[in-house]
Amino acid sequence: MKAIYRQMTLRTRITVSFVLLMVAVMGFVVAAEQLDYDELRAYVISRSLHDEMDRLQADLADGTPPALSGGSELFDARNVPDALRPYTPGYYSADPPDVWHLLVFDLGDQRYYLRQDAERYQYLEHVIDGYALVVMLLCILCAFWIGRLTAARVIAPITQLADAVQRGQTPFPFQEARDEIGVLARAFAQHSDEAEQYLQRERCFVGDASHELRTPLAIISGAAETIVHQLPEDSHLRASGERIVRTTQEMQRQLSCLLLLSRDPQRLAKENVPLRPLIEECMTRCQPWLAGKPVVLLLDAPQDPCIHTNAELARSVVWNLLRNACQYTDKGEIRIAVRDATLSIIDTGPGLPPSMDPQQFQRFAPSLRESGEGLGLSIVQRIVDHLGWRMAVESSENGCRFTLDMSGTQGQQQ
């Protein structure tokens, strides 16, 4: 039976369940219709009258006055009302409005008439009404039971499949099933395989690109440093050489950052990173973008704040935000403030372009200027998410304010 049930589709199972429900309901209805309520009432009343008759006959036979129950009257041939005299031995009942029940019997050579009013049998109406209520409740309970049973059996494989997907269990269960669950399981399996292949290709690309680019970048950086050292102090090529050195060093750092982004966040190497030296290093690296501009770079931070995080990724976030602020601010000031696990970078630049949403940075979004350096705000957002931080941005024509909440790394002031 279970094998046949498993071969059914979900649609067939639900249909069969409702058919069984209707069969059960119709069975109750048919059973109820087989009962004749009038015959049932007459049988109960007649049985009650016969029981009282047996008791009265015993009293009459002993010569003691018969004790009648409430609502009962006993007549003999001498005092019977004329309306009852024509009745022969047996059970009789009168129709409304004057309802009564009569049992005529003979004891010896004397005839007796036992009449009871209808009030003492009012409970039968309640019993019959209660029976109808019981039938309705049984139908509801049966429907509830069948519905719960059907839902449990239909939902159980979906729940198991969802748990397997959430746990990353492979292979997924129910892939051999022929019903809708099987179709869903095979679709999940196919999607999971495609996602795994995509991730594997991305890891391979990042690893290969990093490996293939590190050596050329190291060669370029070494050659550029050699050229810069050999150039005279007053050479007009010295600035270009220093820019080559700076750019290649920046590319090497960004390659390391990309490699770290390709790893599982839970497996990142983390340590207690002193925040102020990291910021001061980034401020020193930003000096070329402030040369010749009336911009003041200010740092407002305690001497010993530490955060527990990955140092390279944290440095990349601070560097990219600070570099953008220095690059796009032509006058005024750039302030870096640290309070507990919150870091803010405020500038007096032109603000973000209207085409860029401050709440969601997309890759390849147009910026105010095209410098070709750094990874941009989209990568900053990716790193922030990777580290479990939160970043808020406020932008206007009077400048930008980037606020980093680093409490997601369980950072603490030390």
Summarize the structure.
The protein is 54% helix and 17% strand. The protein is α+β, with helices and mostly antiparallel strands and 414 residues long.
Which percent range describes the beta-strand content?
A: 15-25%
End-to-end distance, in Å? 68 Å
- The count of helical stretches stands at 10
Largest sheet: 5 strands, mixed
Order of helices and strands: HHHEEEEHHHEHHEEHEEHEEE
Shape: rod-shaped
* Overall pLDDT metric: 79
Give an overview of the whole structure.
The chain is α+β, with helices and mostly antiparallel strands. The model is unreliable at 362-375 and 410-414 (pLDDT under 50). The strands form three sheets. Strands 6-8-9-11-10 form a five-stranded mixed beta sheet, with helices on one face. The chain is built from ten helices and twelve strands. The chain is rod-shaped. It has helices at 2-7, 10-33, 37-62, 122-167, 180-230, 238-261, 275-285, 287-290, 311-328, 376-387, and strands at residues 72-76, 90-93, 100-107, 110-117, 271-274, 295-300, 305-309, 332-339, 342-347, 390-396, 399-405, 412-413.
